[in-house]
Structure formats: structure tokens, C-alpha cells
Write a structure and sequence with these properties.
Blueprint (H helix, E strand, L loop, with lengths): L1 E10 L8 E5 L8 H11 L4 E5 L6 E6 L4 E2 L3 H13 L8 E6 L2 E9 L5 E6 L4 E4 L4 H7 L14 E4 L3 E6 L16 H4 L7 E6 L9 E3 L1 E2 L8 E2 L3 H15 L6 E8 L7 E10 L2 E8 L1 E11 L1
Parallel strand pairs: 2-3, 4-6, 11-12, 13-16
Antiparallel strand pairs: 1-2, 1-19, 3-4, 4-5, 6-7, 7-8, 8-18, 9-10, 10-11, 12-13, 14-15, 16-17, 17-18
Length: about 300
């Protein structure tokens, strides 16, 4: 057994134990894939990120949920880059590229007036695929009645780095009652059985926010709910521009709130620009160091 240092950062918040926790391993180049997976399982956060050396970008990042490796994770990217920057482990430039399983993505790390840092991540161009299943079954899977789903808008699969089923909900009050039947997800999501389910609405807790969401994880990840989700927030922003406000000029900025029902509210800042028939998405946020601890790995 080997001891591995883990750094706990919370992304999309400047308050400890709010936003979304991520485990960060700053010296992971010597670890095998099996050891990374074992470390992520021991950490138990929805994602643990492993920044590594890259031959094709400034840095490579691998992401592991407790059960499997993920192509991309928004909050763990924000947390990892913030950790690297504040520990003096990044090149002294504002624009960088990161190698991920979702592709090589551009990021910027900009200073703030209070001598902190904001990380902005360009995601994969938004993709949408139809959901052909039962709205009643999806409502049941997240603990709601079919009448609470807003069927004036489409429920569909969205992807800016990983697939999630975007489910429009009529009222904010429904979110407190949600109780996911996670084990039912793969059978319901036949087209993408490893997808998560991401209900959202246009009513918000904070008047300065544009959208409110919750994120229920695929059982294949080993977690139930993600408190503040970067990739799904990016897909929400593209959905908003495509299906709710298609007439917007040029680009649009949105604030997505999430995590209130878990006592971990955070904010994701989403920018969407239309490029012919595609929607280019960036997400931005800050992070905060919480603590460090050790796990024993095989």
C-alpha cells in the first residue's frame, strides 16, 4: 500500500464546503490507471482529477469518479487548474490548452481585482439528441409527477463533454421534492445508458441567476448527485440559446445556480455563442482550497 496526498478544493464557490468538491492529485504522473481509480474510490468525491504531463498540450488532466474514468469534468477542471495556478505549477501565461479524453480544450486563467483567479474553460461544441422515451417514466425516476415537467420544451440529451438528459421543470418548488431512482436510469436512457439526468427550470433562488438545476449521476459513476456541475451547466446554456431564446444576437452570458438542495449552492458562469449551426460554450468559475489528506492505494 502507498500513501497518496489528496488536495480537496471546492469549485464554483469561494466558501469552503459550498460548490462542488474535487480531489486533486498534483504529482500523479507516476500513478497507474488502476491506482488513479483506486485513489478516486478512496477519496469518494464525484470526481478526482489528476493533472499530468502532456506531449500535445500545456497539461493533461484525467478524471475519475469512484467507479470509472470520465472524459471531462467541468468542476474538477476548474479546481485542478486553480490548484496548479495557486501552487505555482502552471506556465506564466493566461491562455493554456488542456488534453482531455473529450479533446484538446483551450482555457484561460485571469486575475481578479481581489488578487484571486478565475478559470474559464472552453467546452466541446454543444450536441443535442432527441429523447424518445416516456416523460412520465423520467418524472418518476426523479421523484416527480408528469404534470411537473414542462412539456412546452423538449426533454433531450445534451453534451458539451459528457451526455446528460436535460429535463425542463415548470416550478422551482419541485426541486426540493426530487428523489432520484438512480438504478432505473440506464434502462430509461437507452440511447445513452451511462448518461446522467439534469432537471432544470427558469425560476431561480437568486434573482441574479438565469437558470436553476440539479444533477443526478449515472449509477455507473458510483455517486448519486453532483452539487454544482460544469459540463451540464454548459449544456443548459446552449439549450437556453437554442430552444428558449434563439433570437439572441451574437453571444449570451448566463448564470446557472445549483446545489441549494444539498446545502452547497454555487454558481457557474456560462457564455454561449452561435457559430452557424453550432453553439460554442465556455464555463467559468473560481475555487477554494479546503484541506489536504492522505489515502492508501494499491
Amino acid at each position: 500500500m502507498n500513501s497518496q496526498k489528496i488536495y480537496h478544493y471546492d469549485a464554483f464557490s469561494k466558501q469552503p464546503d459550498k460548490g462542488n468538491p474535487a480531489g486533486i492529485v498534483l504529482n500523479g504522473d507516476h500513478l497507474t490507471t488502476s491506482q488513479m481509480q483506486n485513489a478516486a474510490f478512496k477519496v469518494g468525491f464525484n470526481e478526482t482529477a489528476f493533472p499530468l504531463k502532456s506531449d500535445v498540450a500545456d497539461i493533461r488532466i484525467r478524471y475519475f469518479s469512484p467507479k470509472r474514468e470520465m472524459d471531462l469534468c467541468g468542476h474538477a477542471t476548474i479546481a485542478a487548474l486553480y490548484a496548479l495556478k495557486t501552487n505555482g505549477l502552471l506556465p506564466e501565461k493566461e491562455s493554456l490548452t488542456i488534453e482531455t479524453k473529450a479533446g484538446i480544450l483551450p482555457v484561460t486563467i485571469a486575475s481578479t481585482p481581489d488578487n484571486d483567479w478565475t478559470v474559464r474553460l472552453s467546452q466541446s461544441p454543444a450536441q443535442f439528441k432527441p429523447f424518445d422515451g416516456s416523460i412520465k417514466a423520467i418524472a418518476r425516476a426523479i421523484g416527480l409527477e408528469e404534470s411537473e415537467i414542462d412539456q412546452s420544451l423538449p426533454a433531450l440529451y445534451g453534451n458539451t463533454g459528457s451526455w446528460t438528459l436535460l429535463v425542463p421543470v415548470k416550478r422551482l418548488a419541485s426541486f426540493d421534492r426530487m428523489n432520484p431512482r438512480t438504478k432505473d436510469f440506464p434502462d430509461l436512457l437507452e440511447a445513452y445508458p451511462n448518461a446522467s439526468i439534469h432537471p432544470f427550470c427558469l425560476e431561480t433562488s437568486d434573482p441574479s441567476s438565469d437558470m436553476h438545476g440539479r444533477h443526478f449521476s449515472s449509477p455507473s459513476t458510483g455517486s448519486v448527485e453532483d452539487s454544482v456541475t460544469g459540463t451540464a451547466s454548459g449544456a443548459m446554456g446552449a439549450y437556453y440559446c437554442k430552444y428558449i431564446a434563439d433570437s439572441y444576437p451574437g453571444s449570451r452570458k448566463l448564470v446557472v445556480e445549483q446545489g441549494h438542495e444539498m446545502g452547497k449552492d454555487g454558481r457557474v458562469y456560462v457564455a454561449v455563442s452561435k457559430n452557424r449551426d453550432t453553439y460554442d460554450v465556455t464555463i467559468a468559475g473560481q475555487a477554494i482550497f479546503v484541506k489536504e489528506f492522505d489515502v492508501q492505494i494499491d
